[in-house]
Amino acid sequence: MNRLLFSCIAAPRYGLTIHCIGTQSLHLFSSNFSRQSSSIIRSSPITSLVFCRKYASVPRPKISEVTNSDEWIASSTSTLKQNEKNFIDLTSSTTSPATTASTASQPFCDPPIKTDDVEAKHTFKETEQEVAILPTDLNKNAHVSIRQLCDYYTRLSKKNLTILVASTAAYGFVVAPLPVSIPLLACVTLGTILTSASANTINQLMEIPYDAQMKRTRNRVLVLGQMSYRHAIGFATVTLISGVTLLTLGCNTLTGLLGLSNFLLYTCVYTPMKRKHIINTWLGSIVGAIPPVMGWTACTGSIDSGALLLAFILYAWQFPHFNSLSWNIRREYDRAGYKMMCVSHERLCLVTSLRYSIMILLSCSLIAPAIDMTTWLFALDTLPVNGYLIYLSYKFYRQRDAQSSRKLFRYSLIYLPLLFTLMVIHRQVKTQTHSTSESSSSRNELIPVPM
């Protein structure tokens, strides 16, 4: 939900011009928006007033002073109508500046501003798309405990998503056809966590005005102003440098380059594309397909057919996973201006979920055993797992309702670790064996791993 701001353009007494919102970029530093608005209106005599309405998301620096979200959502419509009525009355009759100031003293906002909030500093900015009120920094006198700061960091990192990404990298390492090295596994997992945390932080920094408009994201740290932007940028920088360095020095250069390229693809390509074209879903699937390849390269040092198969499975899995997730919140995506399949191409959203579910079945049943990545028992064991995914995708395609999409999404969360566990059980490992021939040279041989 956006914030509704009313601005006034008046002709001052000495021939100066106040350029307000809608003409130029306006920077006002004030402890109270209503007090500043009042001072602007009193600086000029009663002249013709032009009222401009702009929308903006409003991150607030003090969570303790924000009222319950459901309360201001329920009262948003009535507050908006009352503000519009007051300003219409102003244009139709001559009103004193004091009355105008009192009308603007309680603007419709998201979330509402407390009248005693006099310590928060704000920067009033306008871009071509939206107006946003940005806190310049946290209160310097505020004390944040270590536990609370760690909570902010985990929320900035999108904890659940980061754990999922790191898990796929760890599975890619374990599935690789070499014996497992615990130090290498720890390096690739921790490096992936740090790189993912940095990418998710930059993503939230870029989408603050839009996250404030969606129920799923409006309680994020930066939207509520619980952490300054400079602090978040510093956190993203430290985690990115640490993650890429750990992947490069702890594993190998190829893994470090994959981690850095995935960060750039997520922040510089996928995130901006979300507001431009539905191809962002395919780009996001590529981002999700790289972490298991990082795990594979950390173990083997190269990209081969097994790494590509892992990448394709993760790439295909994200369509039923994300499409079912976005289906029930497509109205919020539309309101926030995101270009998603579930908004503009509903049938394509349903078809791609079913199509890629079938592709996963073919990959597991035919390609994985054919390239000696797993045994043929893997194809048999994964049939019921993949069959149920196809069944839920088909129900989602036919019914197109919230219940079927929710079932598909929940099963997709269980499906991925279940599939990788079966892959680890049936994987084939290269071991060094000594030949009994005259040359006594060693060779690589693929044998099933006893479990």
Report what the structure shows.
The protein has a 3-stranded antiparallel beta sheet. 61% of the residues lie in helices and 9% in strands. The chain has 19 helices and 7 strands. It has 451 residues and is mainly alpha-helical. The two termini are 54 Å apart. Strand 4 and strand 5 (131-135) form a beta hairpin. The chain has helices at 33-42, 69-74, 76-92, 97-104, 146-156, 159-175, 182-206, 208-211, 221-224, 229-251, 253-273, 280-300, 305-327, 330-336, 341-344, 346-370, 376-381, 383-399, 402-425, and strands at residues 3-9, 29-30, 50-56, 122-126, 131-135, 428-434, 442-448. Helix 6 packs across helix 12 (280-300), helix 7 (182-206) runs antiparallel to helix 12 (280-300) and helix 16 packs antiparallel against helix 18 (383-399).
Q: Which tags fit this structure?
A:
451 residues, mainly alpha, two-stranded antiparallel ribbon, 61% helix, disordered N terminus, disordered C terminus
**Overall residue-averaged pLDDT value:** 74
> Main sheet?
3 strands, antiparallel
Helices and strands, in N-to-C order? EEHEHHHEEHHHHHHHHHHHHHHHEE
Strand order of the largest sheet: 2-4-5
Termini separation: 54 Å
Set down the secondary structure blueprint.
Layout: E1 3-9, E2 29-30, H1 33-42, E3 50-56, H2 69-74, H3 76-92, H4 97-104, E4 122-126, E5 131-135, H5 146-156, H6 159-175, H7 182-206, H8 208-211, H9 221-224, H10 229-251, H11 253-273, H12 280-300, H13 305-327, H14 330-336, H15 341-344, H16 346-370, H17 376-381, H18 383-399, H19 402-425, E6 428-434, E7 442-448
Antiparallel strand pairs: 1-3, 2-4, 4-5, 6-7
